[in-house]
Amino acid sequence: MTQHRRRVSAQQAVRKRAVVAAAFVGTVALGTGVGVWASSGGGDGKKAEGGAVPSSSGRAAGTGSGTAAAPSSASPTPSRSYPLSRAPRTIPAVSAFTPARGPGWQPRKADRVVVSDAELADEGRLLAGELGLTYAGEKEDVQAGDVRLALGGGGGNQESYSMTVREGRVDISGPGEAGVFYGTRTLKQEVHGGGTAPEGVVRDEPAKPVRGFMLDIARKPFSESWIEDRIRELGDLKFNELGLHFSDDQAFRIESSSHPEIVSADHLTKAQVKRIVELADSRHITVVPEIDSPGHLGAVLAAHPDLRLRNVNGVPAKGAIDISKDASAKLVDDLLNEYAGLFTGDQWHLGGDEYQALTAKDPQALYPQLAAAARQKYGASGTVADLATGWLNDRAGTVRAHGRTLRAWNDGFYRGTSVQAAGDLQVAYWTGKELGARPPVEYLSAGRKVLNYNDEFLYYVLGQPQTFVYPTGQRIYEQWDPRVLRGTAAVPARYDGQILGGSFALWCDFPNAQSEAQVAAGIRMPLRATVQKLWDPGRPSLSWADFQALANRLG
């Protein structure tokens, strides 16, 4: 509505009352709608009228790696009846916002969520339930107060979206379902944080395609409900991966039909895991399973002691399987094939770290059976490191046959081997403390894609063993970004495109050090800081205190 409204008859006024009420609901209920947003701390965009305002993280419009979908309606019409809107405050911050004058949008019970595409029904139902609205399904008509979800905008980043708040309605569109879902998360946060979604246009997309949280359920059994609560939290924050490390020396935590003898008493059933995966799918989160090998197999080997790796003196190596035996490969492949049918996402973590044979100064002498197998398979110059690399490649082949993209821990890639790790294996870089550690640039310069699990910033290890301390959200927010792969130093900017993103990791070395509730509270702000820097690695404009206050307001 503009200041120069034409007079209408009483009858016309009655007929238009519903539309007018919707347009001015922010003014009637809460003063000026945008004023309410401003009073709650919502943004401080001060560009000229119609100009794009960068996000609170400082990224300007049009600087992202993809192209956000165009808004589904024309640019908002300025009006002198309202102050110019201020940029929304969300976590992660939106990439860019074009302000406008208008009342913004507030949810009312009479309002509808409608979709233009049947594929968005799940997103529509979820948003309607969260905001107390009616889900009306596929509709072509337009009503006051509508929230419309639509696919469109052609190609580009499938996680990008635009959201237009105009004339008492909201239009969220994007080239892919994930992007539209993220638009609904922005709207939900706007409403929860300030009551009103500000008039204007949000254009948003992530800088990094992988934004993950890795959960160790092998050492500490977490309940299905706790995991599902984390999925909902991750979805609202626009994370898109949940890693599940469910096999280790301490326990094997998921029901198995191929090898029921290895399963620990306290475990998740396949039915429970299926529900977890389905919930994650509904939030556009990929569950990434990890069965670590050839190390960290203690729970599996407890039921198969004949496959334990033993040194020349017959002493077993902790958690290590004897990779010279064909039965070892069969056992692990049985499990990989079984769980590929349970975890339906396109990602898989092979582990590969901390194989005890290769922590010895002279593995050939200490483990002569491995040295003999390496020479038999790779010739006279074959080494134990070659044999371990071949093991990783063979396991990759097993999972690759199921159409998965593969990753392994960086200390599973050995220097100076005649056998090279498969070219499509992504490097999950977590540490530089292992024997013969290779710096991140060594992987990047070889052309490998890398995922950031930097244990200096992103490792929350229960009980704080060795040199670990609980990471703080503030330190991540102020000192880390995806190029900081090892320690505190960033790799050169030219490698940024090879760094796919990263994951905040929860390890449970001392499982009783914290309860489930304490863990949830402890990781709350680190998760928010991590996703902010994965969505936009730039220096945030909000101070840590303001970011923390925003997180508390958003809930």
Automatic annotation (TrEMBL):
<protein>
    <submittedName>
        <fullName>Glycoside hydrolase family 20 protein</fullName>
    </submittedName>
</protein>
<dbReference type="InterPro" id="IPR017853">
    <property type="entry name" value="GH"/>
</dbReference>
<dbReference type="InterPro" id="IPR025705">
    <property type="entry name" value="Beta_hexosaminidase_sua/sub"/>
</dbReference>
<comment type="similarity">
    <text>Belongs to the glycosyl hydrolase 20 family.</text>
</comment>
<dbReference type="InterPro" id="IPR015882">
    <property type="entry name" value="HEX_bac_N"/>
</dbReference>
<keyword id="KW-0378">Hydrolase</keyword>
<feature type="compositionally biased region" description="Low complexity">
    <location>
        <begin position="50"/>
        <end position="81"/>
    </location>
</feature>
<keyword id="KW-0326">Glycosidase</keyword>
<dbReference type="Pfam" id="PF00728">
    <property type="entry name" value="Glyco_hydro_20"/>
</dbReference>
<feature type="region of interest" description="Disordered">
    <location>
        <begin position="39"/>
        <end position="86"/>
    </location>
</feature>
<dbReference type="Pfam" id="PF02838">
    <property type="entry name" value="Glyco_hydro_20b"/>
</dbReference>
<feature type="domain" description="Beta-hexosaminidase bacterial type N-terminal">
    <location>
        <begin position="88"/>
        <end position="204"/>
    </location>
</feature>
<dbReference type="InterPro" id="IPR015883">
    <property type="entry name" value="Glyco_hydro_20_cat"/>
</dbReference>
<dbReference type="GO" id="GO:0016787">
    <property type="term" value="F:hydrolase activity"/>
</dbReference>
<dbReference type="InterPro" id="IPR052764">
    <property type="entry name" value="GH20_Enzymes"/>
</dbReference>
<dbReference type="InterPro" id="IPR029018">
    <property type="entry name" value="Hex-like_dom2"/>
</dbReference>
<feature type="domain" description="Glycoside hydrolase family 20 catalytic">
    <location>
        <begin position="211"/>
        <end position="516"/>
    </location>
</feature>
